From TrEMBL:
Pathway: Amino-acid biosynthesis; L-proline biosynthesis; L-proline from L-glutamate 5-semialdehyde: step 1/1. It holds the Pfam family F420_oxidored. Belongs to the pyrroline-5-carboxylate reductase family. This is Pyrroline-5-carboxylate reductase. The gene is proC. It catalyses: L-proline + NADP(+) = (S)-1-pyrroline-5-carboxylate + NADPH + 2 H(+); L-proline + NAD(+) = (S)-1-pyrroline-5-carboxylate + NADH + 2 H(+). It comes from Pseudonocardia dioxanivorans (strain ATCC 55486 / DSM 44775 / JCM 13855 / CB1190). GO terms for molecular function: pyrroline-5-carboxylate reductase activity. It comes from the Bacteria.
């Protein structure tokens, strides 16, 4: 039996715990930490999972998942260093933080796997990318992949690509939400009730995503299949290109990548 401790029961931490329960893992194999007593009590009552302090959770765990904000990592590492057992696998869900930061703050030889998940973990549709640190073996990576498969899809990438992953899929849901928000506003401008516009766009987004997942065709081909000569869609695409939407998206994702790099450097500099 593998006992998993989740340090930080925010949205991602809670989603992981819920996904593990839904996949059949017993609550007795899980433990979490949470700074706010009321929040901890509410989660324990709802999920049936015990809470503990960092030292207590780490001392009993085979896998420690760190799901705190990057700026809060220093005190957590300080508590972990004296409590973690030799060979315990540490999984970081902290945006921007390299495995070397954890390896430097924990006992020598601690295996660390870096993960960038995203918020669709809340509905079991996360996209997570994993990267092993210097002491993590293929078996360690397999353990993390199996764990994350309970809440979505998983890919393995070199750690050098993690900042790009953070910008693309880690922040990616926000870009889609932003686009859907704008399209709903357009529907209202065109005279549709908000609820009708939202239903039309959300289902269209869901259907389009399903087509892309299930089809072998490139998105360009799928778009062209909707774009008739001299039709409504090409008129809309022309306006999107005229307003630089493609360039704006690329620039936005580059900015997110740069911020991920900056987060990692700022924490390491402390």
């Amino acid at each position: 039996m593998t006992r998993i401790a989740v340090l930080g029961a925010g949205k991602i931490g809670e989603a992981l715990l819920s996904g593990l329960l839904a996949s059949g893992r017993p609550a007795s194999e899980l433990v979490f930490t949470e700074r706010h007593a009321e929040r901890a009590a509410e989660l324990t009552e709802r999920l049936g999972i015990a809470s503990a302090d960092v030292a207590g959770a780490a001392a009993a765990a085979d896998v420690v998942v760190v799901a705190v904000k990057p700026q809060d990592i220093a005190p957590v590492l300080g508590e972990l260093k004296g409590a973690i057992r030799p060979g315990t696998l540490v999984v970081s869900l902290c945006a921007g933080l390299p495995t070397a930061l954890f390896e430097g703050g924990l006992p020598d030889g601690t295996p660390v796997v870096r993960v960038m998940p995203n918020t669709p973990m809340l509905v079991g549709e996360a996209m997570s990318a994993v990267s092993p640190g210097a002491h993590a073996t293929a078996e360690h990576v397999g353990t993390v992949v199996d764990m994350l498969a309970a809440v979505g899809r998983v890919v393995q990438v070199p750690e050098s690509q993690q900042d790009a992953v953070t910008a693309l899929s880690g922040s990616g849901p926000a870009y889609f939400f932003f686009l859907v928000e704008a399209m709903i506003d357009a529907g209202i401008l065109l005279g549709l009730p908000r609820a009708v516009a939202a239903d039309l766009i959300v289902q269209s987004a869901y259907g389009a995503a399903s087509m892309m997942r299930e089809s072998d065709d490139h998105p360009v081909l799928l778009r062209e299949a909707v774009t008739s000569p001299a039709g409504t869609t090409i008129a809309a695409i022309r306006e999107l290109e005229r307003h630089g939407v493609r360039a704006a998206l690329i620039a936005a994702i580059e900015a997110a990548r740069d911020r991920s790099v900056e987060l990692g450097r700022s924490v390491q500099a402390r």
